[in-house]
Specification:
By secondary structure, the protein is α/β, with parallel strands linked by helices. It has one domain (about 5-225): TIM Barrel (Alpha-Beta Barrel), CATH 3.20.20.70. The protein contains ten helices and eight strands. An eight-stranded parallel β-barrel has the order 1-2-3-4-5-6-7-8, surrounded by six helices. Helix 2 packs across helix 3 (about 50-60). It is globular.
Length: about 230
């Protein structure tokens, strides 16, 4: 069974915790991934080589790998340069995701040129485009990304006013991109997930609603406070 066959119609769980978060630990993320696998997840999205290595020791699920790195000359931080791509390829990620927005990339390199180098170096690797708009998703499909994600919708200047989850974006990309579309970003309820499924998505990624207890707690606390 191919990687795409394994994730088609399934739920991918994002297991990430940044350095300033209570659960920041490769051991904890690996246990999160194992719990997700037992719960029926079809894949894991993870950040950093250390987390991915530990997750791969713990689960048999395909991994969408990213490395978040901040460069001073760019707002792009999800797998922004070849250095991060090389590291992810070396640790065996089945899918590598990267920022595919129209924002300036590190060192001023256009996405078109960057991805051409990446594809040339790793012709057999699956790549997912993390996009914030329909146009970016269509452009990424034309560049040859294997999967198109709605990951960054609502997080860029161009999309900050969009209502998320963005079902219009999902539906448009499903109809027109010619690529498998991954719904990701701000899916908090089963009802929202069902609406995404109704748009014809290939698979969905859910993170915060499952694996970030601090944020989940805050949402309930806000209700208790009348927020």
């Amino acid at each position: 069974m191919t990687v795409l066959e394994k994730i088609k119609g399934g739920l991918i769980v994002s297991c990430q915790a940044l350095e300033n978060e209570p659960l920041h630990s490769s051991f904890i993320m690996a246990r999160m991934a194992y719990a997700a696998e037992l719960g029926g997840a079809c894949g894991i999205r993870a950040n950093s080589v250390l987390d991915i290595i530990e997750i791969k020791k713990t689960t048999t699920l395909p991994v969408i790998g990213i490395i978040k790195t901040v460069y001073q000359d760019s707002l792009v931080y999800i797998t922004p340069t070849m250095e991060e791509v090389d590291a992810l390829a070396a640790c065996g990620c089945e899918i590598i995701a990267m920022d595919a927005t129209n924002r300036q990339r590190p060192f001023g390199e256009p996405l078109k040129d960057f991805f051409a180098k990446v594809r040339s170096k790793y012709p057999d690797q699956l790549f997912m485009a993390d996009c914030s708009t329909i146009i970016e998703g269509m452009d990424a499909a034309a560049l040859g990304f294997d999967l198109i994600g709605t990951t960054l919708n609502g997080y860029t200047q161009e999309s900050k006013d969009d209502i998320t989850p963005n079902y219009v974006m999902m539906s448009d990309l499903v109809l027109n991109s010619g690529k498998p579309v991954i719904a990701e970003g701000n899916i908090w309820t089963a009802e929202q997930l069902q609406k995404a499924i109704d748009c014809g998505i290939f698979a969905a990624v859910i993170g915060s609603a499952i694996t970030r207890p601090m944020l989940i707690t805050q949402r309930f606390v806000n209700v208790m406070k009348g927020g």
